[in-house]
Amino acid sequence: MRKSVTTLLKRTAEPLHWRGSVLLAFFFALQFLLPINSPAQWQRIYAEATNGVGIGGETNIPCVYFLNLPGPPRIGFTYSGGHTFDDGLRKTTDGGFTWFKVPLLGVPMDFAFKDSLTGWVSRDLIPTAKTTDGGLSWTGNNGPEWVGGGGIYFDSLSDGLFTGNNPDSGCLFSWDEGETWVRQKDFGSDGFGNGFAFVNNDSGILTNDARTSKLYDPTWWYRTTDAGHHWQTLYIDSPCYQPVGIWGTSTYVACTIYGTILRSTDNGDTWDSIAALPVPNPIGKQWGSTADGGPSSGCIEGDSADLYTVTGDGCYHSTDLGMTWNFLCGQPSIYMLHGRFYAKDRRVYIQTITMDSSSAQAIFDGSSTASIWYLNLDSMQYFPTGIALPSGAKGTTVIPGASVT
Length: 405
Prior knowledge:
The structure is a single chain. The chain is mainly beta. The chain is 8% helix and 31% strand. It contains three helices and 29 strands. The strands form seven sheets. It has a five-stranded antiparallel β-sheet with strand order 26-27-28-1-29. A four-stranded antiparallel β-sheet has the order 2-3-4-5, with no helix packed on it. A four-stranded antiparallel β-sheet has the order 6-7-8-9, with no helix packed on it. Strand 23 and strand 24 (315-318) form a beta hairpin. The longest helix has 16 residues, at 18-33. The protein starts with a helix and ends with a strand. Mean pLDDT is 73; it is low at 1-16, 26-39, 52-58, 211-217, 281-294 and 382-405.
């Protein structure tokens, strides 16, 4: 036994074989070649220069939407502000990597589908449109002039089609798939909202984002427990653009435009403030800047396993229903608010805008680029800090489809 130990010690003292030396040198070199924090695999899958058209000069991408079909996201829609008012809708059938033009008048703000063929789009300040062929063609409905502008939701139990709308028209509901519309009287004479979220076919909420002249006025939320036939007022004065309901539970999670995470676990009876995200800009500032980011989007997407939200700094991810959040790095763009992003399972799609000058007026005069970014968390190496670019620059010249490193 003593002899074998002595022999082993002698062998370890001998010079390494040349192959072992090369291997050690390779690993040693990697310490200098690889960054301490691995890069996230964000891909810019859509990018187009804007030209200042759209309602109110909105040249951003107000929503990214995919049909809730089995498997990963495949069929979806978005809007490009870089086109004329009747030429901005885009559709994808491959998860967002290629897009083609679909004729539609107006700016789409939100989508709702009954099945793979029948759906509706809420448009900014003009009536809701309907499709029966999976979004290849759309027809305007016989609703009043101010039907569109807010969130839209279809309830499969009651066949109710609900729109959030704006303070001029209130919330308008349809019980015949959008052929006729009635004002939801439970909201009062000027009640309105934007984001619908349901936890089952009966129970849902409607939040108010207050991105109007009423920014500092009370912005009540509403709740239904009978599939949208009646609604109760929730006296919550925090503006929220789009909450999320955890299906099959009694839990809602919302992110206010101030970056506060609110959660209810009793079907909306009570709400707790459980987290706060960094919101660098002053409250009420709508556009981000290259220096200090922007406010919260007021949107939250996901499910019980993975929740996501976006601020002017970047995208955040939670795996404990909003209690704690990890930063998924910022993208090389400026965030444009007032837009719904999309997330399913471990895949995230968010929209940004890059201004070609330091002035916010660039958003309106056409010197900006709207983009959609895609991230598959299962194919990334997570890191807790900001995005790493070799040049240290913002990387605004990244081409669509290229990985951001």
